[in-house]
Amino acid sequence: MTLPFSLLDLAPIAEGASLADALENSRQLAVQAEKSGYHRIWLAEHHAMHGVASSATSVVLGHIAAATKSIRIGSGGVMLPNHSPLVIAEQFGTLATLFPGRVDLGLGRAPGTDMATARALRRNLNSDVDSYPEDIRELQHYLAAPQSGQRIVAVPGANTHIPLWLLGSSLYSAQLAAKFGLPYSFASHFAPDQLFDAINIYRSTFQASTQCDKPYVMAGVMVVVADTDEEATYLFTSVQQQFMNMRRGVNRPFARPVDDLSQICSAADQAMLSHILRYAVVGSSDTVAQKLTQFIQATEVDELIVSMPIHNVQARLKSAKMLAQTGIMSI
């Protein structure tokens, strides 16, 4: 059993490193992903986070697309309520013109930041989650072939027909993706609770569209592969610290791993980590292959998108290479 694997890159700003280092690391990861046969690499929009460098998502996508030749690149995702649909059509239309046949546009409706920063991002807050479906339709309109007499045309953007994806962690996004006939990616890597319900609703209510004639489900999974289970567990403490910091309202760069997480992890932290990261797959190649196979069989997803939250870039590149070599990824 094999299926396409893709990578989700948050362009982590590692503790002790710079923003420039983070963006160079994203370039290296994209190059490694292409060499290893990953289907696509996506970047996520986050703002005012000291550990994430991909706030200007379309700009970073141009950076990694220029370093590669064939791997699909895209957003996982652009938070559409933060933007005018026309601006996103122009940005991604530019990418699609520069890198034809390679661009995906994944959309989300969360702010991707705190509300104070969300207010600073938007000229006003009228473009909020309530207008999200209309904003998606408007974006589709700008990316389609222009109609006779159309007053507003995205240049670039019009006639690019960039494939849209809806991303989410709730039943709402599953219902909307099904109604619009769009592929759906569920954020089970950080919001596991409604994974199976969302997939079931999406598949059972899907309506075919010009983009998709049948449902297509992707699920997000955190993966850390190393030579041993113990080493992988050590590397995984970086993202565990990140979630602990988020819980405490602490905004820091992506932490170095620690030998003993229990020294800084309360019982409440441990319960939170066990819950939120329940689908994380951490270990040696054999361990990871076994656990990922179980996840794929349980969800029957069409594609996996994998986040590799590893502080050291060389260990991150090695993890991506080792995962591709497990034999469960179609190339």
From TrEMBL:
Tree of life domain: Bacteria
GO cellular component: cytosol
Domain Luciferase-like: 17-297
Gene3D superfamilies: Luciferase-like domain
Similarity comment: family membership: To bacterial alkanal monooxygenase alpha and beta chains.
Any Pfam family: Bac_luciferase
UniProt GO molecular function: oxidoreductase activity, acting on paired donors, with incorporation or reduction of molecular oxygen
Region forming the signal peptide: none
Coiled coil: none
Protein name: Luciferase-like monooxygenase
Organism: Brumicola pallidula DSM 14239 = ACAM 615
UniProt cross-references to InterPro entries, sorted A to Z: Bact_Lucif_Oxidored, CmoO-like, Luciferase-like_dom, Luciferase-like_sf
